[in-house]
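Problem 12. The chain below contains 823 residues. Write out its predicted structure in token notation.
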Amino acid sequence: MHSTPSNLQSKVRQSVTRRPQSSKLILVATMLALYPTLSTAAFAATDNATVSSPSKQDTVIKLKEIKKKYERLLVGERNIASAMSVIGPTQIKHSSSAESIYSLLKQTPSVNEYQQNVGPGTPVLTVRGVRMSQLAQTLDGIPMTDLLAGGQGAYLSNNVGTIISNGQISGIHVYPGVAPPDRSGFATVGGTVSYTTKTPPKKRYADIFTKVGSFSTDTYGFDASTGKIPGTDGLRIYTRLSQTQTDGYIQNTPARYTDFLFTAIKPYDYGLSKVTGTVIYNTAHGYLISAPNAIAQLDKYGIFYNYPLSDASTFQRNSYLTAILGDSTYINSHLVIGAKAFFIHKQNYLAGYLAPKYISPDYPYQVNFNNPYSGFGNLVPTTASPGVIPHTYNPVAVFGSYPAGEAAQINISGDTTIGITPKINIFIPHNDITIGGLVAQETAGPGGGNYFYGTLDMPQIYGYNSYGNPFSPTNAKQQRTVYSGYLSDKINLIDNKLHIEPGVTLTGVSTSNYVPVNQYGTPPNAYTLSNYDKEVLPYLGLSYDITHKIIAYASYGKGARFAPVDDYILGPSGSTTVAPGPETVNAYEAGLRYVGKHLYLNFDGFLQNMHGMFSFYTNYLTGFSQYANVGEEQMKGLEFSGKYEINPEWTVSGHVSYTNAQYMNSFSANVTPFEGQYGYVFAGDPLASVPNWLAGLRVGYHQHNFHAALIESYTGPQVTTYDLPPTESNPLLQDATTPNPGVKLAPYFLTNLQASYKVPIHKDHLSSVTVSLNIDNLLDNHYYLHYYQAYKEYAFEAVGNPYAEAYPGMPRFIELGLSGRFS
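Solution.
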């Protein structure tokens, strides 16, 4: 996933061409040890080392200087023909416990993100207006994105916790639009976010750390590195375990997160090749708000008000297990081959409850979307329709009414993904060729049972109060197999000034969905939905070194996202599968990049035309949905980012971006990024929850053992949504959510402060103690992250009068940290 900037390559080549041929292996091994992220293209040049040699110490010092400058500037791939941003280890290391892998992305252009709690709780993310479910995410080159549904998974699943946490990553690359094929990941129509896990450090140490913060937030744990283990030819191991618990900044939303990382690296062939292994096991449980609270209640009880858990609750308990085994083998100066095999298992448990007193047309507010009666309707009566499992549970007989008998719901789901990502790098004069691919399969289940009953502790009995049996391996099983391959080349011409990057990705997707119970009665028995889709995705990038420091670039790329498996339905004949095709994007970019010794600047413009966007219409009386590819959207805008190293102590970086995202035709659509609201959009409408303007500024200071940073961010006005009245003559428009350009969420500024000081100790085995301070939202601004107007839903219909609802943003968060290093 990482290519070396060409100026870095040239410096490496200059530093090694004075070294005699006989010492090639020693030098390359030293390079790998000093800078493990260097491209193999850089050390391919060592074959031609023929001139007199400086000392080994001089070479080591020179390589260390190159690494240091590269890490400080963080310019990533100098000649890449697409826009990109890098979040480095310093930004990650000094983030607070309130942040997540997604909130860090707001330090890059065109990214809008918010989350509902301290830490990784219910993230909402857009890049240039493209939502998380439409983005590709990779972890060390493997797909993090859910293959069956996109994003983190299906709606209201895996909203608490993540596959990987802040403390487990060393860097993030953000590629908005369509990146070159070897960086773009699987199934994206608007961007790729690439995460890199921590690798075992070269030094042996052990750290014990703890943090105490606002809202009863406590974090504690340890990490340890073996360094090079004697007698193992360079084997290194690193492990980390941490736990965070919080009461949440919104009332009655406590959460707990536990993260574990184990990673190892074993060089071989004199350090030219390596085997890597990574195991990540993260768990999380906590309460979230499935429906924002009414503004009238927030005005009356306080902006962070939430119903008591005895009245309303949505609870999730999730686990994420990831294992990656990789190998990179140096064959010769022209060929490096590698592959990564991976395993990902996610388990999700959701329990929602709403006191029956709120399940009434007379109560004016929607309290909980997970209450079956107000969100899903009655259970099938005791005498079932033909073909439907006869349920003996009668909520009226047991509890006296449907609201009392259907006040709770439990969903149990899980999925497993296995796969392999092979990769071949070929280095020949004027060409760096990459051939790679992805073969992966994700299977959902066992899981998927929906239990409806009056209390959360009522027995869970398949065929009694559940349509599905989550404990059966033959219950509703969704499966998707991905076959994808890409060919990418980087052609360097005109004295290495012109760089042409042609590439193509071919992807085939085979999908099946076994449905054991047909709730609609036609046909009366179980059935399987299956489909095969394929896409050819071309890419072409051009970059030209106008001067040694100024690079002009332009690119075109096509991306595709395949339909979620839940969008597959039976056709009219009852025997064929009707499945939407992929939604696609044609993305165009052009820009200028300045890369100097202490200054980095990037300016680019983009146009993204999105076609065949997923659309659906649900008949609430039957629960039956129809899906199609009819939507058209367009994103266009400008981005600017830069970083300036004023002197060794002071660094300034920042970004500003403008995005115009709008619907090009009228269709039924998911209207909000979190996909919790769907309705109808009209041609020319702007996308809701997508600010036109985003900006950020970071001023950093580092001297000896002291680090400090002041971070400012600006989120501009964003269009909200409202519900059309239920009196609309067109059934498609009755109570449909739609963008509301006349009402915009107010803009807001946030200021974060970071500081830390390392105190040398050198007593016994304790070498240092580090004290840290984080203050997020330093000025304690009160603001809303999400706002809309809606009707309450009751028994399939909108009732009462429309009212405003909102999520508040996090107030001032103060955290003190203490860590000790033992070596």
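Discussion. Confidence is low (pLDDT under 50) at residues 1-56, 59-76, 380-389. Students who got a different answer should revisit the alignment rule from Section 12.3.
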